[in-house]
Amino acid sequence: MGGLWTDFGTGIAYQLVPDDPLVDNTQCGLDSALMAKIGTNSIRVYHVDPSLDHDDCMKTFADAGIYIWLDLDTFDTQIGQDKPQWNQTQLDRFSAVMDTFHKYDNLGGFFVGNEVLTTGMSSQCPTKHVLIMYRQWLRRRTLCQGRRPRPQGLP
């Protein structure tokens, strides 16, 4: 799976509905074959259910040479645009997603907070404060658990 850091990444968004797209291996197999034909080497997934089994789909994408860039949040735990905050529900959810996906070699990294860029809030202090807290939490959690550091997508 080498080359992601030395070659230009070619990716697509992989999620049209609010269901976890990484649990149906038949669909993952069909999609990864088509993606490989057009030269895709990474996909962005907007949300998953960490309680489900992702092993087959993650292996299918790994076998196709495709990395996963994963949002930690969901539609109900995203960082709010108007009143950004960092709360226990988000922390628990982000932790569950991170814990579930850290074992996969083709996890490229995590995203969080991109939704705050759609309003004028992105330059205001509360948004920056929430994102700084997230970044520090992610680094500490990764180091304390002895995991490989992953890139972080922050606005």
Features:
single chain, 155 residues, alpha/beta, TIM Barrel, five-stranded parallel beta sheet, 4 helices, 5 strands, 36% helix, 12% strand
In brief:
The protein has four helices and five strands, in the order E-H-E-H-E-H-E-H-E.
Summarize the structure in words.
With 155 residues, this protein is of the alpha/beta class. The protein has four helices and five strands, in the order βαβαβαβαβ. The chain has a five-stranded parallel β-sheet, covered by helices on one side. The N terminus is likely disordered.
Regions with pLDDT < 50 over 5+ consecutive residues? 1-6
**Percentage of residues assigned to helices:** 25-40%
Give the terminus-to-terminus CA distance. 27 Å
| Tally of distinct domains | 1
Strand order of the largest sheet: 1-2-3-4-5
> How many helices?
4
Report the β-strand fraction as a percent range. 5-15%
Q: Report the top-level CATH class.
A: Alpha Beta
Radius of gyration: 16 Å
Number of DSSP-assigned strands: 5
Task: Tell me which CATH architecture applies here.
Answer: Alpha-Beta Barrel
